[in-house]
């Protein structure tokens, strides 16, 4: 019989694509899926995975309220934990990501769930540079409240024998952080970057959704940490040039080198921070995860961006 699966954050960016990947799977019928949402109004179109087929079970719960989690894992075999809080409220960030994940894992353990898969982030490693880095080879050095709280969440999952997936830059429909942030940076520069060969790992959110589902369903022992990015990193100049081309951005200035870009962004610490991240390698190598679970890492950066370009143009335009 197919496993019973719980998806947290089912109405969010990554969680929504996990729900879509479940809908494409032939292994789990909708009746075996439970969706956890803080706001059921954010339920994916159609009510759940599958064309027009509602999920058998939609529950309202809040990771910031551990009492609301009681019983949500009853009868569940696999927990796909995609919920997280990203924002300026540091207290809520810690409450949801750290304490909420601990409460969820405790509930999953109490209910006898056999596997917890947590979608984390490579930001737990800190600022870099990281070149062809494999899981387990780098110390954790998170620098923001969000990445610190997600590193703490990882520990709860790993201590329970769970699976942690660390993507770096996730792009695709619903992304309100990565590509929009790069667009803002290009707008401040009014130019692209030249000669910047720092490499960055990226993954299409649709491929990430498939990876999460594959990790949950795999009969392999996956306990531990895995990098989930496209095998081919993208260099900084190509990343920005392709973005400007696909989204039709107008950059009137001549391309700048990194030092010229830093001068232009003087007095803008957030933009300088983002530029500094772009200027060094953030390349996280695959440890065999994709092949091990039989998942497709998706198209490369240029094709993925082209396929999501319409959504990005509309979002950036708003």
Characterise this structure.
The chain is α/β, with parallel strands linked by helices and 318 residues long. It has one domain (5-235, 273-317): NAD(P)-binding Rossmann-like Domain (Rossmann fold), CATH 3.40.50.720. It has helices spanning 13-24, 90-111, 145-159, 178-189, 205-217, 236-247, 258-264, 269-278, 289-293, 301-317, and strands at 5-8, 33-37, 57-60, 78-81, 115-119, 130-133, 163-166, 169-171, 199-200, 202-204, 224-227, 234-235, 282-284. The radius of gyration is 20 Å and the shape is globular. Mean pLDDT is 93; it is low at 46-54.
Summarize this, please?
The protein is α/β, with parallel strands linked by helices and 318 residues long. 39% of the residues lie in helices and 15% in strands.
What is the topological layout?
Layout: E1 5-8, H1 13-24, E2 33-37, E3 57-60, E4 78-81, H2 90-111, E5 115-119, E6 130-133, H3 145-159, E7 163-166, E8 169-171, H4 178-189, E9 199-200, E10 202-204, H5 205-217, E11 224-227, E12 234-235, H6 236-247, H7 258-264, H8 269-278, E13 282-284, H9 289-293, H10 301-317
Parallel strand pairs: 1-2, 1-4, 2-3, 4-5, 5-7, 6-13, 7-11, 8-10
Antiparallel strand pairs: 9-12
